[in-house]
Amino acid sequence: MEPDTIERLPEILRAYLSEHLPDARNVSIHNVSRSPGGNSRSMWFFDADWEGEAPIAKRLMFRANESTCFRDEEASLEKEYRVFRALQDTPVPVPANYWYERDPCWAGEDFVIRERVEGDTNFRDLPAASQQAILDHFVEILAAQHNLDWEAMGLSFLGAPKDGPECARMVVERWERATKRELLEPQPVMTATMAWLKRNLPTEVDRIVLGQGQVGPGQVLFRGDRVVASLDWESAFIGDPMSDLAYLDFMVRPLVGDEVVEGLITRYGELSGIPIRRDNMRFYTVFQSYWAVSACLAAVNRFATGEMRKTQTLVLGMAAPRSFLRRMERIVREDAA
Amino acid sequence: MRPTPAEIVEGLQYNLRADLIPELQSPWAKRIAGNMLWALEHLKQRLEEEHALAVDENADLRGVLAAATTARAEGGTLADALASIDLAPGDTREWPAAEELTAENARLRTLVDAIVEAFPAERDDAAEALWREILGYIARQTERDGALIEINPG
After folding, report:
1. ipTM more than 0.85?
2. CB A25 within 8 A of CB A50
């Protein structure tokens, strides 16, 4: 957002809530602060107060459409908002999303106003027992999520594969297009990895589910040993559940070790009733590295072309994908050995 | 000219660390200051090392193209797959300017990328040897970029 919009944000929020809460009087806005969390979209925390009645929480978040790394074709704010709304009142805990605003007269771009749930995100520094308890609860949520009837929830707009083989093919084609669109200079490692992905497309998928895309610690809020909110749905998709499981695996295995992760995978299988397909998980581990680098290429593109010349865009685009690039380089080399 | 650009960057890093960051209150401002420290360190590394790394990179790419030319001439699975790619690496000056190196790199990488894209799924011995050559280049290229990006800004 433009600096003058940021400066006027408290007044923008006061005017917006006043207009959208007809039974509230004397709306006031306090404690507006930029959220340091998240890498993709700009977010601000704020508190609101009013006299009279209003059907929303008083601790709120403003999430702007401005994104360092995603384009609307792959991950729009509106898509995320619709997924959040569909998940309301399901076993997946999510903050209430109140408004998706398209009119640029308010802040110059689209935005969402949502409930701010109290909780922690710093999973890494927790004692091992707490980490295990949170992951146990998270796996229950993930299994329930993968059992949701996404068609009945109105989520077919995410793009539903017609069969198992199409699950992987769709995401690979989508992100190959995105990569080619964003690349400013050739990256043979991306091309070699894409060749690997096309050679190893999974064909067996036991259930086509609502996937989250980015899963587990870092994407959830917890209080004590319980997950209280699942936060990140901009990469949601309809497809192979092994994709989410692969993401969870590679995010938490370095933190909690093999034994805990294998226990989580077994428990997920029991709770969801979905067989664990290790070959699919391996494929999605490689795909998610490709996906992460591809998203970061959009950040490099935005910085280099002047679309978003901010250091957060630069650092996300250049520094964040390094571990994924190294992983991809290693896998294509091992595959050739 | 003294001070060098890298020395000036070090001065900026010092003031950011010693004078500005301690005064910052909000977590967001501190995060952005951290990003700025990273960007300054990256800039310093590029000022000091990018030219030499670009020379290495382009020589490496020329090596891959030479290997591809030899492998294609042997016939087999590569002859058809690479038939439409112009493998000539083009000329280079002995002491190229940074902009020339960048342009040359884009041209050479485009050729190597085209080879990777066209590479046959079924590989005979010559193709297997060239693929290993390409993977070697990719590993070295990842290392070279890493030297400029995987940095500790302090």
Report:
1. yes
2. yes
Q: Is B111:B65 a contact under the CB 8 Å cutoff?
A: yes
CA–CA distance, A183 with A178 (Å, rounded to integer)? 9
Count: domains in chain A:
2
Q: Look at residue A38 and tell me whether its pLDDT is greater than 80.
A: no
DSSP B13-49: HHHIIIIIGGG--SHHHHHHHHHHHHHHHHHHHHHHH
User: Average of pLDDT values for B127-135?
Assistant: 93
CB atoms within 10 A of CB B46: 19
Q: Percent of chain B having pLDDT more than 70?
A: 99
**Strand (E) or helix (H) holding A41:** strand A41-52
Residue A157 is classified by DSSP as G
**Å between B2 CA and nearest CA of chain A:** 27
Predicted confidence (pLDDT) per residue in B71-124, tens digit = 999 888 899 999 999 998 888 877 888 889 999 999 999 999 999 999 998 888
pLDDT at A1: 87
- Say if B35 is an interface residue toward chain A (CB within 8 Å): yes
Q: Cβ contact (<8 Å) for A195 and B117?
A: yes
How many Å from the N-terminal Cα to the C-terminal Cα in chain A?
Answer: 48
Query: Minimal CA–CA distance to A245: which of A199, A214, A221, A206?
Result: A214
What is the phi/psi pair of residue A100, to 5°? -115, 115
- Whether residues A105 and A153 fall in one domain: no
In a domain, A123, yes or no: no
**pTM as predicted:** 0.93
- A178 and A86 in a single domain? The answer is no
pLDDT number for residue B97: 86
Helix (H, G, I), strand (E, B) or coil at A135: helix
Q: Both tokens of residue A325?
A: 């690039």
Q: Could you give the angle at which helices B98-118 and B27-73 cross, rounded to 10 degrees?
A: 60
Helix (H) / strand (E) element for B134: namely: helix B125-149
Residue A298's domain comprises 128-336
Element (H, E) at A258: helix A258-272
Query: In CATH, what number is assigned to the domain containing residue A187?
Result: 3.90.1200.10
Two tokens, residue B91: 């000329």
First to last CA, chain B: 27
Under an 8 A CB cutoff, do A188 and B137 touch?
Answer: yes
Residues of A in contact with B81 (CB under 8 A): none
User: Does residue A189 belong to the interface with chain B, where contact is any CB pair within 8 Å?
Assistant: yes
